């Protein structure tokens, strides 16, 4: 595994920094994550802190040195963080559970996987091109999807900070999981809080990230976002990682993968995961379990 | 990926195996329950595994769409659904909901249960707020405990007993429902199953020291359910009580209105320390079966009280 990574979190113009960021890696797996504690709710930073600690803790336990199933890991780790936040809130007798957004990304065997709740984002860049981006769990994003407003309206919308999924709180979070995304040499993955993407916009962000290596681009982007946000600037957090190995490069014998479209590769990996993955249920497993249950029903009927 | 996935229920009249769907009875984050009829016209309740966040059924299609990226999580949830089916399949008791069939269709799985007419204890409590009698509480819970005893005998725990999961048939007999949280306690891979609990009815060990669950965990929830029959609302959550126990004991709150023995039994079940509670359903049943009677001491106290009141208001 070879990569270049740089992370930084700044307070902006706020009285406290409710963002928490982290990355950890084993020989075979890399985890990056950002949690943005939600203002307007009590103890947002507590929620962000617990989320980062819990998810990093799960990674340390399970990446030995590879994760068995990165997507399942992400889904469980985020759900577990949600429950831990609620447990801590209840144990401390807090009147309301604190909340946080969360974006987490795992890279393993040159394949990227990510999961998020809320409006902290992930961008995946190849060359100068934006290859993938998370979709915010916000009402504004929903209106945008439905064509009710356009991008300019969204950027200025009064409710643009309202999210409908987060870790912590009464509602189970909606956690969106990514596809398994193979990486190529030079691909850049960036995670950021809304304090960074909101004042910059996608175009500027993509340009600056593609322009230089993370060690240079991250501080540069934070400077720019801070300036643009002005007197009321939010907390700013950004992690950028440039991948120096290639998924295709790892299978030199199989030339055809080089020419295959990205989607085909992704789908094939997905299929393999379903059939042989340690957590997967094969068709046979399902049939066998159902038969077992039906036999038990018969046996215990009068 | 759509931001919010709202699943459409199967339409009325839909043929599902040999059943015909009537209408949706309830909707949860992980499943939809329908009223349906089998070929003989007997009503049944069918629970469909359909996790909202992972599988999307749009109008006009029976088969939900499951993204490749969600398959692992979908299968994990399916395993939990299997656990519920497995738990119920091994139980055949008048006070436990009976599973009749289990099958696969529409690329998901279905659990068919006996349909009972009546209402949940939760609804009953709401309708009779604070007016449930001692005889009612003793009756319902003694019978319900017959079912729970069967569950425990099979080395299983329910782990989510609460008035919403206790159904009262029209004839007044109780049925224990919803084994979604049930776990075969002997299974060692319990860590892969997400813990779930309902504040107010879950025992403290379900919040904290997970893994030290036992029959006493369900007994705590029975006590909390009895408490809520008297109170008309759920008791203070156990995790809050661990901080500072502000729960008014039943013996204090309803002194004189219910027999001391019943109130003591409720408080006994709801002790925070696992080892302080009744250690088996059988022990608890014996306590509930006891008719309240006047002890010599209380007769003596009653006599004094009588004399005092005579003295005060001649």
Task: Give an account of the 3D structure.
- The complex is a heterodimer of chains A (302) and B (314).
- Chain A has 302 residues and is an alpha+beta fold.
- In chain A, 41% of the residues lie in helices and 22% in strands.
- Chain A has two domains: 3-259, Phosphatase 2c, domain 1 (4-Layer Sandwich); 262-302, no CATH class.
- In chain A, strands 2, 3, 4, 5, 8 and 9 form a six-stranded antiparallel beta sheet that branches.
- In chain A, α1 crosses α2 (70-91), α5 crosses α7 (214-229) and α6 (202-211) packs antiparallel against α7 (214-229).
- By secondary structure, chain B is α+β, with helices and mostly antiparallel strands.
- Chain B has two domains: 15-114, Phosphorylase Kinase, domain 1, CATH 3.30.200; 118-289, Orthogonal Bundle (Transferase(Phosphotransferase), domain 1).
- Chain B has helices at 71-89, 121-127, 134-153, 204-207, 215-231, 238-243, 250-253, 260-269, 281-289, 296-312; strands at 15-16, 19-27, 31-37, 43-49, 55-56, 65-66, 99-105, 108-114, 118-120, 156-157, 166-169, 174-176, 183-184.
- The longest helix of chain B has 20 residues, at 134-153.
- Chain B is elongated and about 75 Å long.
- The relative contact order of chain B is 0.09.
- Residues 1-5 and 184-195 of chain B have low confidence and may be disordered.
- Chains A and B meet through α2, α3, β8, α9 and α10 of A and α1, β7 and α6 of B.
